[in-house]
Amino acid sequence: MIKLLGDIFIPILPAIVTAGLLMGINNLLTMKGLFGPKPLVEQFPQLGDFSNIINVIASTAFIFLPALIGWSSMRVFGGSQILGLVLGLVLMNPQLVSQYDIAKGHIPNLAYLRFRN
């Protein structure tokens, strides 16, 4: 079981580690009070775009993590990697119920073939 999880997550690990390090760099650039009363991006406005690019690159690995896990899982289980990627992307579809709605207690009632849940 541990080997199976390792086979799935080890190929994804470099992307996650890199994203985490980039998030740390971005936090250093945007943290107030670390290098003076203002963040570095306010002290040196030319760093603003650099900080935005770092943020986009860093957050991409975490935003698309379900797709990466779907791809890697299908690679390990011997299925179609494209299908695994698509199934991971389905989990990210904004038309699905979000965790925030569930936490607020708002769960929509969906009807499938005239059956209501």
Protein topology:
Blueprint: H1 2-9, H2 13-30, H3 40-43, H4 47-63, H5 65-77, H6 81-90, H7 99-103, E1 111-112, E2 115-116
Antiparallel strand pairs: 1-2
- Computed over alpha carbons, the radius of gyration is 20 Å
Classify the helix fraction into a percent range: 55-70%
Tally of strands: 2
User: Mean pLDDT score, rounded?
Assistant: 88
Strand composition percent: under 5%
Largest beta sheet: what is the strand line-up? Answer: 1-2
Largest sheet at a glance?
2 strands, antiparallel
The residue ranges in which pLDDT falls below 50 over 5 or more consecutive positions are: none
Structural class: mainly alpha
Q: State the shape.
A: flat
Specify the oligomeric state. Answer: single chain
Q: What is the rounded distance between the termini?
A: 34 Å
**Structural domains: how many:** 1
Instruction: Sketch the topology as an H/E string, one letter per element.
Output: HHHHHHHEE
List the total number of helices: 7
Structure notes:
This protein is mainly α and 117 residues long. It has one domain. Helices cover 64% and strands 3% of the residues. The chain is built from 7 helices and 2 strands, in the order αααααααββ. The chain has helices at 2-9, 13-30, 40-43, 47-63, 65-77, 81-90, 99-103, and strands at 111-112, 115-116. A two-stranded antiparallel sheet has the order 1-2. β1 and β2 form a beta hairpin. α1 crosses α5, α2 packs antiparallel against α4 and α5 packs antiparallel against α6 (81-90). The two termini are 34 Å apart. The relative contact order is 0.10. The model has no long low-confidence stretch (mean pLDDT 88). This is Phosphotransferase system trehalose-specific enzyme IIBC component. Keywords: Cell membrane, Membrane, Sugar transport, Transferase, Transmembrane, Transmembrane helix, Transport. It comes from Staphylococcus gallinarum.
